[in-house]
Each structure stands twice: as C-alpha cells, then as structure tokens.
Amino acid sequence: MSKKSTIFAEIIKKAKMVDGICPHCAEHTLLISVVMDYYRCLNCGGDIEQKVNGKISYLPVDLSVEEIKDGKEI
Ligand SMILES: [Zn+2]
What we know:
- The chain is an alpha+beta fold.
- The chain has a domain at about 10-60.
- It is about 25% helix and about 40% strand.
- It is built from 2 helices and 5 strands; from the N terminus they run αβββββα.
- Strands 1-2-3-4-5 form a 5-stranded antiparallel sheet, with no helix packed on it.
- The protein is globular, with a radius of gyration of 15 Å.
- Zinc ion binds near residues 22, 24, 25 and 27.
C-alpha cells in the first residue's frame, strides 16, 4: 500500500510553492498552492487566498462558513 505516497508526490509535483508572509501566523514561510489562488501555510497550516491586483497580497481564508455547512444535520 505505497500508492498514497505516490499520489502525494504527484500533488507536490503539480503544486506551486511560493514564499510569503502568512496572515495567520505572521511568519515569513513557504506557502503551497492547493488549488488555484489558494495557498496553505506550511508553518501553521492556515489557508490563504492570493489576490493579485497589481501587487500580490495574501488574505486569510475564513473556514468557519465551511465548518458550519459540514456540521449541518441532514
Ligand atoms: Zn501561517
């Protein structure tokens, strides 16, 4: 069952890594792109949305909306 690591290697190969200041932990760290324009801080694991309007800025992604959605009983 070593397929998991292969998949992870594929993700890493496709993922985009940038360095920047994380708005969650305020550390200058590596940010890894998980999906288009969304990055994850490798220091604290916080999700960040990248905004590019002339200059690049990183905004913390508020996950509380998603959490409420997930927690909703069906
Ligand atoms: Zn961080």
